[in-house]
Design goal:
Blueprint lengths: L16 H10 L1 H21 L10 H29 L1 H7 L1 H12 L4 H29 L5 H23 L4 H19 L6 H6 L3 H12 L6 H16 L4 H4 L3 H18 L3 H6 L1 H7 L6 H26 L1 H28 L9 H16 L4 H9 L2 H56 L8 H8 L13 H7 L1
Length: about 475
């Protein structure tokens, strides 16, 4: 099946604009998630040092306030799959407005540390669920020719949300920042309410007329949806005939391979050292004698993330997932090597780096840019692409939970790692992991650019399917050998 399944049988191509609108609306959830990720940076000094909320918060307590969101996100990754199957992708995402609002209300009116921790936990519940439901919804509504670009919207809007938190937090106090952030999930719900449900969900519920209307909305009123509808029905019939239990899904070759790829990608995503690099942003800029205050340095990092992620959104369906992942991981390794060398020289004799202040700044900017064009957004995109509909509710949440748990662990144990290995040793470790990640992508990760979701399952099952570029995927070809 080399021809796009969304090409009309009568020659009328599908419209792309409605799909962009739906994907942008869905990405409002990612914007809401990004704001609570960016909240911790501008909130730390006012809450810990200035006691802005009127009660004391020490550094250890604030580290728990920040990391509780990761635990909430990990916990919600499993229920969201069931919820998506029960009420649909659209309504599952709309219901996530509730924990986000509850979380912000607890933070806005917090009178003790416990309220802040519980509030952050509920924000994580909403954000972690969006990490699963957002990419899944976008993958299911998209034409294969633009699925990559639309799938990248999720990470792009997360970075926009983080930058929003940095910038607004620099201008207002923590309570006002929290109030402004609380408006975003409300706006998301008001806009996304008018978007269509995924056609795949309607097909699964045997609501063929609703699926047809959804396709008409997404592809345009002049689009003849019969061919795509037949493809979706045939795939659903096949999945029903092969309906499996939770344990049986792990006996399918395609599912096992998709799980290995997804867990591998989120492992290398978290273990790239991105948290350590961001943690040391202020230190690195100070070492360069840049004269920038911590707030300005943080905003610069946020801008680099947004610009690089936007670039990735433009080129992902032209260049492909694999090449961007390999470029990303390789140059992240180069960046962390440069940081390791710098800090090692500084630890040995600070006079050796007196004239090298530019080196860590260059390495940091390169790292953030490379992370943002590859390992930042693409793992989430591919989690939405790799799993078949009959196993998605079972196993795709594992990738999200795995990622959030690793984020929690890395955040909490980085200080111990730094104490044991030194900051240079920690960066040497991260560089080695990134090099291994590059090799992992080359040999294990398939190219999914321009390939329908049905074809991806055939590839993962071991069939040789020619993509839009006309050749069999290298990773799959090597596996067959």
């Amino acid at each position: 099946m080399t021809r796009s399944s969304t090409e009309s049988v009568v020659g009328n191509p599908s419209r792309k604009l409605p799909q962009y609108i739906a994907a942008l609306a869905a990405s409002g959830g990612a914007l809401a998630a990004g704001t609570f990720l960016g909240w911790t940076s501008p909130a730390e000094i006012p809450l810990v040092q200035n006691e802005e909320y009127g009660f004391p918060i020490n550094a250890e307590e604030f580290s728990w306030i920040g990391s509780m969101a990761n635990l909430g996100a990990a916990l919600m990754c499993f229920p969201i799959g069931i919820l998506m199957k029960m009420v649909g992708r659209k309504w599952a995402m709309l219901l996530l407005v509730l924990p986000l609002m509850l979380g912000w209300l607890l933070i806005i009116f917090a009178s003790n540390v416990a309220m802040l921790m519980v509030g952050r936990f509920f924000l994580g519940v909403g954000g972690g669920a969006f990490a699963i439901s957002g990419p899944a919804y976008t993958a299911e509504i998209s034409d294969p020719s633009i699925r990559g670009a639309l799938g990248m919207f999720f990470q792009l809007f997360i970075t926009l949300g983080i930058l929003f938190g940095y910038a607004v937090g620099a201008a207002v106090n923590v309570q006002v920042l929290s109030i402004i952030c609380a408006v975003i999930p409300i706006a998301f719900g008001a806009i996304f309410f008018f978007m269509p449900e995924s056609p795949q969900y309607f097909i699964q519920k045997n609501r063929i007329e609703d699926a047809s209307k959804s396709l008409k909305w997404l592809r345009g009123s002049h689009y003849d949806q019969r061919a795509e509808l037949e493809t979706l029905q045939a795939e659903d019939a096949k999945l029903r005939a092969e309906k499996i239990t939770f344990l049986q899904c792990f006996q399918q070759r395609a599912t096992i391979r998709a799980l290995i790829i997804s867990l591998g990608l989120v492992f290398f995503h978290q273990m790239s050292g991105v948290n350590a690099v961001i943690f040391y942003t202020t230190t690195i800029f100070d070492a360069a004698n840049s004269g920038l205050d911590p707030t300005a340095a943080t905003i610069i990092v946020g801008v680099i993330q947004v610009v690089a992620t936007f670039l990735a959104t433009i080129i992902v369906d032209r260049v492909g997932r694999r090449i961007l992942l390999m470029i990303s991981d390789f140059f992240m390794a180069v960046s962390t090597i440069l940081l390791a060398v710098y800090f090692q020289l500084k630890e040995t004799d600070e006079t050796q780096v007196e004239n090298l202040g530019w080196l860590p700044v260059l390495a940091l900017c390169l790292f953030i840019a490379m992370f943002s064009i590859g390992y930042g957004p693409i793992p989430w995109l591919m989690i939405g692409e790799l799993f078949a509909n009959n196993v998605k509710a079972y196993v795709s949440p594992l990738g999200g939970a795995f990622s959030w748990l690793f984020a929690f662990l890395v955040t909490k144990v980085f200080t111990n790692l730094r104490d044991a290995l030194g900051i240079s040793g920690a960066f040497w470790l991260f560089s080695g992991i990134s090099l291994v990640g590059t090799i992992f992508v080359f040999f294990i990760v398939p190219e999914t650019k321009g390939i329908s979701l049905v074809e991806i399952q055939r590839i993962l099952s071991g069939e040789k399917v020619r993509g839009t570029n006309g050749h069999v995927d290298r990773a799959m070809e090597d596996d067959e050998k």
